[in-house]
Amino acid sequence: MAKSSDNDRRSSWSNIQYIRCELDTKLKGNLKKWLDQTHDWLGYIEAAAIDGLRFGAHEDAYNKCIEARLTLLSQSTGVDTLVLQGRGPDLLTAIQALFYKHLIVLEKDWENLDRAPEYKFTEWG
What we know:
Strand order of the largest sheet: 1-4-3-2
Distance between the termini: 50 Å
Number of helices: 4
Oligomer: single chain
CATH topology: Double Stranded RNA Binding Domain
Number of strands: 4
Helix content: 25-40%
Shape: globular
Number of domains: 1
Structural class: alpha+beta
Strand content: 15-25%
Protein backbone atom coordinates (compact mmCIF):
# COMPACT_ATOMS: atom_id res chain seq x y z
CA MET A 1 0.00 0.00 0.00
CA ALA A 2 1.43 3.39 -0.99
CA LYS A 3 2.00 6.01 1.69
CA SER A 4 0.33 9.37 1.20
CA SER A 5 2.79 12.14 0.49
CA ASP A 6 3.05 15.40 2.43
CA ASN A 7 1.42 17.14 -0.53
CA ASP A 8 -1.61 14.82 -0.32
CA ARG A 9 -2.06 15.58 3.37
CA ARG A 10 -1.65 19.34 2.91
CA SER A 11 -4.26 19.43 0.18
CA SER A 12 -6.83 17.88 2.53
CA TRP A 13 -6.42 20.59 5.16
CA SER A 14 -9.00 23.32 5.39
CA ASN A 15 -8.55 26.83 4.04
CA ILE A 16 -7.81 29.70 6.40
CA GLN A 17 -10.08 32.72 6.49
CA TYR A 18 -9.27 35.86 8.45
CA ILE A 19 -12.26 37.50 10.08
CA ARG A 20 -12.63 41.07 8.88
CA CYS A 21 -13.23 43.01 12.09
CA GLU A 22 -11.60 46.41 11.99
CA LEU A 23 -12.01 48.91 14.81
CA ASP A 24 -13.21 52.25 13.53
CA THR A 25 -12.98 55.47 15.56
CA LYS A 26 -16.24 54.78 17.45
CA LEU A 27 -15.27 51.19 18.32
CA LYS A 28 -11.82 52.34 19.48
CA GLY A 29 -13.54 54.84 21.77
CA ASN A 30 -15.76 52.08 23.13
CA LEU A 31 -12.67 49.88 23.59
CA LYS A 32 -11.07 52.57 25.77
CA LYS A 33 -14.20 52.69 27.95
CA TRP A 34 -14.26 48.88 28.14
CA LEU A 35 -10.63 48.88 29.30
CA ASP A 36 -11.64 51.02 32.30
CA GLN A 37 -13.28 47.90 33.72
CA THR A 38 -11.37 45.15 35.54
CA HIS A 39 -10.27 42.35 33.22
CA ASP A 40 -8.65 38.94 33.67
CA TRP A 41 -6.66 38.64 30.44
CA LEU A 42 -5.23 35.20 31.27
CA GLY A 43 -8.74 34.11 32.22
CA TYR A 44 -10.03 35.22 28.82
CA ILE A 45 -7.28 33.25 27.10
CA GLU A 46 -8.03 30.18 29.23
CA ALA A 47 -11.78 30.42 28.53
CA ALA A 48 -11.11 30.67 24.80
CA ALA A 49 -8.89 27.57 24.97
CA ILE A 50 -11.61 25.68 26.85
CA ASP A 51 -14.05 26.74 24.11
CA GLY A 52 -11.77 25.06 21.55
CA LEU A 53 -9.96 28.13 20.25
CA ARG A 54 -6.20 28.32 19.83
CA PHE A 55 -4.46 31.46 21.14
CA GLY A 56 -1.19 32.73 19.74
CA ALA A 57 0.84 35.90 19.53
CA HIS A 58 3.84 37.01 17.55
CA GLU A 59 5.68 40.04 16.28
CA ASP A 60 4.44 41.22 12.90
CA ALA A 61 7.64 42.80 11.57
CA TYR A 62 6.07 43.76 8.25
CA ASN A 63 3.36 45.88 9.92
CA LYS A 64 5.62 46.84 12.87
CA CYS A 65 3.26 45.65 15.58
CA ILE A 66 2.38 42.68 17.77
CA GLU A 67 -0.43 40.39 16.63
CA ALA A 68 -2.53 38.30 19.00
CA ARG A 69 -4.89 35.82 17.42
CA LEU A 70 -7.58 33.30 18.16
CA THR A 71 -7.99 30.43 15.72
CA LEU A 72 -11.06 28.23 15.32
CA LEU A 73 -9.52 25.10 13.81
CA SER A 74 -11.11 22.94 11.18
CA GLN A 75 -9.62 19.79 9.72
CA SER A 76 -12.43 19.25 7.21
CA THR A 77 -11.99 19.91 3.54
CA GLY A 78 -14.35 22.66 2.45
CA VAL A 79 -14.73 24.05 5.97
CA ASP A 80 -12.55 27.02 6.73
CA THR A 81 -10.29 27.51 9.71
CA LEU A 82 -11.18 30.96 11.05
CA VAL A 83 -8.69 33.46 12.49
CA LEU A 84 -9.49 36.59 14.49
CA GLN A 85 -6.64 39.06 15.01
CA GLY A 86 -5.89 41.91 17.36
CA ARG A 87 -2.91 44.15 16.78
CA GLY A 88 -1.13 46.71 18.88
CA PRO A 89 2.21 48.30 19.62
CA ASP A 90 2.77 45.78 22.45
CA LEU A 91 1.47 42.37 23.52
CA LEU A 92 -1.05 43.59 26.10
CA THR A 93 -2.61 46.09 23.68
CA ALA A 94 -2.90 43.38 21.01
CA ILE A 95 -4.58 41.02 23.51
CA GLN A 96 -6.95 43.78 24.60
CA ALA A 97 -7.96 44.54 21.00
CA LEU A 98 -8.39 40.82 20.26
CA PHE A 99 -10.66 40.07 23.21
CA TYR A 100 -12.67 43.26 22.71
CA LYS A 101 -13.40 42.02 19.19
CA HIS A 102 -14.07 38.46 20.35
CA LEU A 103 -16.21 39.17 23.41
CA ILE A 104 -17.89 42.51 22.67
CA VAL A 105 -17.95 43.24 18.94
CA LEU A 106 -18.52 39.68 17.65
CA GLU A 107 -20.08 38.28 20.85
CA LYS A 108 -18.03 35.06 20.37
CA ASP A 109 -19.99 34.26 17.18
CA TRP A 110 -17.64 34.19 14.18
CA GLU A 111 -19.19 31.42 12.13
CA ASN A 112 -22.27 33.41 11.14
CA LEU A 113 -20.41 36.43 9.74
CA ASP A 114 -20.21 37.55 6.15
CA ARG A 115 -16.52 36.72 5.68
CA ALA A 116 -14.20 38.06 3.02
CA PRO A 117 -11.32 35.79 1.95
CA GLU A 118 -8.80 38.60 2.17
CA TYR A 119 -8.04 40.63 5.27
CA LYS A 120 -6.67 44.12 5.18
CA PHE A 121 -6.26 46.51 8.07
CA THR A 122 -5.41 50.18 8.06
CA GLU A 123 -4.57 50.86 11.71
CA TRP A 124 -3.65 48.75 14.70
CA GLY A 125 -6.51 46.91 16.31
